[in-house]
Fold this sequence. Notes:
Chain A: This is ABC transporter substrate-binding protein. Chain A: Belongs to the leucine-binding protein family. Chain A: Keywords: Signal. Chain A: It comes from Bailinhaonella thermotolerans. The complex is a heterodimer of chains A (434) and B (298). By secondary structure, chain A is α/β, with parallel strands linked by helices. Chain A folds into 2 domains: 186 residues, Rossmann fold; 169 residues, Rossmann fold (3-Layer(aba) Sandwich). Helices cover 40% and strands 16% of the residues of chain A. Chain A contains 15 helices and 13 strands. In chain A, strands 8-7-9-10-11-12-13 form a 7-stranded mixed sheet, sandwiched between helices. In chain A, strands 1, 2, 3, 4, 5 and 6 form a 6-stranded mixed sheet that branches. The longest helix of chain A is centred in the C-terminal third of the chain and has 23 residues. The N and C termini of chain A lie far apart (47 Å). Chain B has one domain. Chain B is 71% helix and 3% strand. Chain B contains 11 helices and 2 strands. Chain B is globular. Classes of the chains: A alpha/beta (434), B mainly alpha (298). Chains A and B meet through helix 1, helix 2, helix 8 and helix 9 of A and helix 1, helix 4, helix 10 and helix 11 of B.
Amino acid sequence: MNRRHLAATVAALVLLPISACGVFRGGGGEGEGKGGAPAAPGVTKEPCPQAVDKAKGCIYLGTISDLTSGPFAALAVPITDAQKAFWKRVNAAGGIGGKYEVDVQTYVRDNKYNPEVHNQVYQEIKGKVLGLAQTLGSPTTAAIIADLRAQRIVSAPASWTSAWEFEDVIIETGSNYCVEAMNSVDYAAEAHKARKVMAVHYAGDYGADAAAGAKAAAEAGKLEFSAVETPSGATEQGRAIDEIVKGKPDVVILTTGPADAAAVIGQSAARGFRGRFIGTGPTWNPALLKSPAAPAIKALYEQSAPGLPYGADTPGHRAMRQALGNVTPNDGYTSGWAWAYPMKAALEKMVAGGNVGRAGLLAAVKSLTTVDYEGMLPPEAGNFAADPNTAVFRQTLINKVDEKAPTGVSVARDFFTGPTARAYRLDGPCFNKL
Amino acid sequence: MDTLKGLLESLVRGLGNGSVYALLALGFVIIYKATRVISFAQPAFMICGAVAVSHLAGVTGFYAAVLISVAGVAALALAVERAAIRPMVGRPVFVVAIITLGVDVVLRVIVNGFIGRDVRQVGDPWGFRTVHLAGIGVQQRHLAMLAAAVVVLLAVFAFFRHTRYGLAMRAAAYDQEAALAQGVSVGMVFALSWALAGGLAAIAGTFVGTGQGVDQLTWIIALKALPAIILGGLDSLGGAVAGGLAVGVAESLVQAYQQQLAPWLGQNFAVVSPYVVMLVVLLVRPYGLFGTREVERV
């Protein structure tokens, strides 16, 4: 075989996964320009394809999620299913303002957690939807954010980066990774007497956001801090494990996917590390309890979370469980369901105001000071009217591993705001300050 | 003392992972020697093996599952060779290599259905358990990887040296037409090389899955065999083993020491270190450490 050909093929093979990891980002989309989009795209007088009441019109919302082969598929599929159940319940209860039902089934696309694919499928559906019920991932959504802004397409993110606090069109729910990590460090300093903190994180605005929060809290609490950036892939965690074992931090703030978290925790413990791990929400998956890392996870790991877990006893959680029926519990469902409340509140306000369309929806979002999450989150978590520093929600929880709980975790510390998060002035996305 | 202990622990980890790369690399080289084609289907065979073990281990036990999986993947590779590769004999090798890429994608899409969205565990008996040898903490699975690789590699080398089929494969690799003239069935050699490579990939996949499990992205690790084979020399079995071990050790040492010794290289230089080692070796020895020099008359 010709060696030049081989070199080209090897290069292609190496670049393929790098590109899939989102190292190369696509452009933000060019937008359709003035007059390109119809007055109210994604809104029809005709009923939805699966309408409960055929007399009502239809509002189409798009979903772009990691549905098959990306690293967050185990969370993304339940998120998407929960949102379908959420809007089905809304439609069954009379829809939006008695005039419209909401369709989240027609425009569901897979992004494979790849920014280019995300942008491509977004371009396919953007003219046909009023907003996005879900746009999963921080780097993926970053690939379309400029166009979302230009087209005024209100979107619910499936990610918690602090950058969303500064985007009018993004309706985030719950605290961002930055605040979550601040609270985790403050909690570790108080509950575990931690003096030495290490953030082990992915690159980009998921991992770096949390690491920046951990750094801010460590500085505020005069704790020793180090940050270790790690690539995705369970077999690529060797360096992170080396740094943990050598550095012997009291607490590791972990911002990875679940498989990588298990590799880091399991192998660090196997090499004698006895400090604590606090992982951000997406580090957890109940399947980890069946992995060889389970003993270490049970002994050393806690999960920080922006919301109560699946089994919690609130009207919202009960409604979710009832709507979903007999499914394997997963906090992807919980997040997906909770994320839909601000969109529902904004759609109701838009229809009530009579300005049905993208501008009307954005105006409705900008006037929301609270959202009724049916107890899943405090109403003030849904403040989209104030400036970012005022509106940002600063409460998170700490969950502990609990094999009897539906998703393997139960609340160890209920919603709280640590001293760092309370005092922190959010004047830009945190990840820029790492 | 701690420094020496850390170094030895890193070396053992590197050799453990490197032995997996060596098994994968050996599969690439066996097919290359027989057919002059780099088979990019190896990642898929690796994942097929690991996933088969993850499904079977609960029923048959881990070791029986590995044997069944190796036999199954070898049979699968045989079938792929017969159906997709044999009809292409005589076509440019680059075309055949691209077909193997297609085979890889198709197989991985199918096997993804058997992985599902969660990580699958292969049910190995080692987990993250560690033993202490002369004060050095070593994960049992790394020792198992090393031991299995040694046994398998000895068996493969014995096969090539001491069996009729092995001899036939060596003859065909040396000169296909001469081998044909001597009554060697080159078709059989092609098939056997694919089956061997499939079986080796299945063993490697199982060891990749020990401890950390298998998910839909695990296949990417098989690409690390590419710098290993180029480093060792594309057509050298011994080179594949040396290349695999060198890649594993280089990666492990870079993970452990680069941040202290050369922090200016950035945080995750270990990820690209196999390729850097490969480039450095190629600069000095363009045909790899043990590869045959190509002489072309123009």
